[in-house]
Write a structure and sequence with these properties.
This protein is α/β, with parallel strands linked by helices. 16% of the residues lie in helices and 28% in strands. Helix 7 runs parallel beside helix 8. GO terms for molecular function: serine-type endopeptidase activity.
Length: 673
């Protein structure tokens, strides 16, 4: 019988954290093991995949800004951010000590561990204060690590972790650029914050792969070490496991109980514009969608020295070659390595289309490289164009430009067509932005549809940041330095669909002074789990030891969770939900007035319409009544509620699906098994 990898959480663990132990046991051992008194639960460890300078200015957090508060000028001083990713390249200037950086906070209990090409005495400092790596789970599931394409240490081979860490908390690096592209000052959103790396994800045949067992171990260490915030850019595509069977959700629940915010990426998928693909959906964590910034990297494509097309790329020097259609080198014009017809493309720049065979750019690059081509022109929908640092020079064009290039080649018949790829230097404020990235996973949540996911958007396209010198790309959105507040902050969205952008695009400056916040406690999340049909025994698997998990006698809709969004996935009759807000603004006697934009076909009534606060941190509850005035349309409609005191505009989105046809029935709570 094949062995199965199982991670077993034990009730006897240090500092009451859910310390996991990894076992390789046969199927016949499973049942007897669950009779052991110290074993809380048995989980099969699954695999996650990674979600693969100018940006902070774009979101309103420039390095030098008049009128900022002392808190903003601190740039995240002494905040400790834990990065769960592929490791770090410590020699990058992004991880050098900031001038005047004080000693490591006394609360820090972590360490830098030694490993392959990683000496803690050299790698770590007052900026990079922690570095660990986790490999036991991955090697149990996939076999020994390939030492030719990885480091058995916190050192980053893939590059994703280095890029993510520098984007979030990288030190200030002047005159940063990628071979002249994107020239400027590179820095993270919180350049004075400290960083601790937890290498949970590894290069597995050029795919970033993470074991759940290793992720669980990293959560235990990070919470014990004393991080203030955790960033993780990995997940699994739907169907999603119930929360009590997901180590990432359990770990983030423990973090929430200890006051540590966990920020996940919403997920990256080629089919992401389809609904309900968002991967990280727990209400006690923040799920961030990826959006573009207002910077492009224009590149000229010149045919026969006289016909010019514009694409986008990170090509750093001019490339010359002959134009070739994909059909000359690939079966059925499908640019995939397994479709190469063994005809060499040496000296040629190949034109490929993403919609022929539904190939992503990574596959087309590998195919052209296998065919010995010198470059690739990749035609795809406009919303999918994401320039990258590729193994061969690659220019992204839209389908219209790609069609014109192909038609020109056809008119030339058998005459060779010369191609010049001429790079630019980057252009700022030339593209409509922000716009949700094509690959960013959308809602609604397939697991908890009455909770809006993703929560917010942050730049995740065309971000130039630190990268290992052995190998620039990354599509993991960031917002770690403002995560604990941004969920409650007001600000208008630039898209009509909250399932794409959540509450809107990140605004760090306004997040520092949100005015009102929507607070939630452990008991609120336990009631949420009860309402979702989880048993008390199942909930007990998720919480820290000693936490009461008693469910109420009657169940309410999860729309009543005090979330900074109102989502009703099954509105059949008039329904009232409540929210409680806390005054954290500078005016202790603040007066807030309500205004609402109703979803199509739904009447919205708010009571009271005026919130009169008497002191700082005063809390007031208000009620929102939603009444359907149409029959079911089978779709969500959207609106918003805004509370304003004349200075703060605290906005929450409304997402409502009317389902009041005669044959409609109430959705029963699902009993997980």
């Amino acid at each position: 019988m094949e062995n199965i990898i199982l991670s077993i959480s034990c009730s006897c663990h240090l500092q009451s954290l859910s310390r996991g132990i990894l076992f390789r046991i046969t199927l016949v051992n499973i049942c007897p093991s669950t009779d052991i008194g110290e074993v809380v639960s048995v989980f099969q460890s699954r695999l996650f995949e990674l979600h693969t300078t100018r940006s902070w200015d774009f979101v309103g957090l420039p390095l030098n800004n008049g009128g900022v508060t002392p808190r903003q000028l601190a740039y995240g001083s002494d905040v400790i951010v834990g990065i769960f990713d592929t490791g770090i390249w410590p020699e990058s200037p992004s991880f050098s000590e900031e001038h005047g950086m004080g000693p490591i906070p006394s609360s820090w209990k972590g360490k830098c561990v030694r490993g392959e090409n990683f000496d803690p005495a050299i790698a770590c400092n007052r900026k990079l204060i922690g570095a660990r790596y986790y490999l036991t789970g991955l090697e149990h599931q996939l076999g020994p690590l390939n030492s030719d394409s990885e480091y058995r240490s916190p050192r980053d081979w893939v590059g994703h972790g280095t890029h993510t860490a520098s984007t979030a908390v990288g030190s200030i690096v002047h005159n940063a650029n990628y071979y002249g592209i994107g020239q400027g000052t590179a820095r993270g959103g919180a350049p004075r914050a400290r960083v601790a790396i937890y290498k949970t994800c590894w290069n597995n045949n050029n795919v970033g792969t993470c074991s759940e067992a290793d992720v669980m171990a990293a959560f235990d260490d990070a919470l014990r070490d004393g991080v203030h915030l955790i960033s993780a850019s990995f997940g699994r595509a739907p169907p999603l496991a119930p929360f009590f069977k997901s180590q990432a959700d359990i770990g983030s629940f423990h973090a929430m109980q200890l006051g540590v915010t966990v920020v996940f990426s919403a997920g990256n998928e080629n089919s992401a514009p389809n609904p309900s693909l968002v991967q990280n959906v727990s209400p006690w964590s923040i799920s961030v969608a990826a959006s573009s910034i207002d910077r492009t990297f224009p590149t000229k494509i010149v045919l026969d020295a006289n016909l010019t097309f514009m694409g986008e790329s990170l090509v750093i020097s001019q490339v010359n070659g002959l134009l070739a259609d994909a059909g000359s080198h690939f079966i059925n014009r499908i640019c995939s390595p397994d479709k190469w017809n063994n005809i060499s493309a040496s000296g040629k720049i190949v034109l490929c289309f993403s919609n022929v065979g539904l190939v992503p750019s990574e596959l087309a690059i590998a195919a052209v490289q296998k065919a010995y081509g010198v470059g690739l022109i990749f035609a795809e929908p406009l919303s999918r164009q994401i320039p990258d640092v590729d193994d061969i020079p690659t220019v992204h064009v839209d389908l219209q430009q790609g069609t014109r290039i192909r038609n020109y080649l056809g008119l030339a018949r058998r005459r060779p067509v010369s191609v010049q790829i001429i790079p630019g230097k980057g252009v700022i404020r030339k593209s409509p932005a922000p716009a949700v990235a094509y690959f960013s996973c959308r809602g609604p949540s397939s697991l908890s549809p009455d909770i809006l996911k993703p929560d917010i958007t942050a730049p995740g396209v065309n971000i130039l940041a630190a990268w290992p010198s052995r190998a620039v790309n990354n599509n993991g959105p960031y917002m770690e330095d403002t995560a604990s507040e941004v969920m409650m902050a007001g600000g208008s969205t630039k898209s009509s669909d909250p399932f794409e952008v959540g509450a809107g695009h990140i605004n760090p400056t306004k997040a520092m002074d949100p005015g009102l916040v929507y607070d939630m406690k452990t008991t609120d999340y336990i009631i949420f789990l009860c309402n979702s049909g989880y048993t008390q025994d199942q909930i007990a698997l998720m919480v820290r030891p000693g936490t009461r998990t008693t469910c109420p006698h009657s169940y309410a809709s999860n729309s009543n969770l005090n979330y900074p969004a109102i989502t009703v996935s099954n509105l059949q009759t008039t329904t009232t939900v409540k929210r409680t807000v806390r005054n954290v603004g500078w005016n202790r006697n603040a007066l807030y007035f309500a205004r609402a934009t109703s979803p199509h076909g739904v009447d919205v009534y708010i009571w009271p319409k005026i919130l009169a606060f008497s002191w700082f941190r005063d809390e007031i509850t208000y009620y929102v009544t939603l009444s359907p005035r149409k029959v079911s349309s089978g779709r969500y409609d959207f609106g918003e509620i805004v509370w304003s005191d004349g200075f703060h505009n605290v906005r929450i989105p409304l997402a409502v699906c009317v389902n009041n046809t005669d044959h409609a029935t109430a959705a029963a709570a699902h009993q997980w098994s």
